[in-house]
Amino acid sequence: MLLLRIGSIFVLVYVSFIFLYVRGICNFCHLMLKYICHLCIYFLCFCIIIYFCYFHVYYQGSYLTKADKWVQIKAKQDGDKFAARLYFSGEAVKIVAAYC
Fold first, then answer.
1. What is the pLDDT of residues 1-45, one digit of tens each?
2. How far apart are CA 92 and CA 83, in angstroms?
């Protein structure tokens, strides 16, 4: 939600700069506004990349946590030493993926 607000502010600023350019401003001002707009776009792209990286890591972590819990429960229910060995070797994700 915060990124949408930031993006809308950048779009508003960019449109206002275009309006100023159409109204006729000096070349120096045009170049400065162009660089500022490019910096805003780069910053917005950076925010989007950070946003997706954060959620990828977050969901990856929650998936691994669910897998670890599933293997612990499975090992306790069945008394299966193989499942316990897989849990400690970090292969829990493959087990959950096979049963999903």
1. 565 666 677 777 676 666 666 656 666 666 677 777 777 778 777
2. 8
Q: Measured between alpha carbons, how far is residue 19 from residues 1, 11, 48, 99 in Å?
A: 27, 12, 26, 58
Instruction: Break the chain into its structural domains and give their ranges.
Output: 2-99
Query: What CA–CA distances, in Å, run from 35 to 13, 23, 64?
Result: 13, 19, 43
Q: What is the pTM assigned to this prediction?
A: 0.33
Is residue 58's pLDDT more than 70?
Answer: no
- CB proximity list for 95: less than 8 A, separation 6 or greater: 67, 70, 71, 74, 83, 86
Of the candidates 66, 57, 61, the residue with the CA atom closest to the CA atom of residue 92:
66
Tokens found for residue 41: 């776009």
Give the N- to C-terminal CA distance of the chain in Å, as an integer.
Answer: 32
What span, in angstroms and rounded, lies between the C-alpha atoms of 39 and 23? 23
**Structure token pair of residue 7:** 């993006």
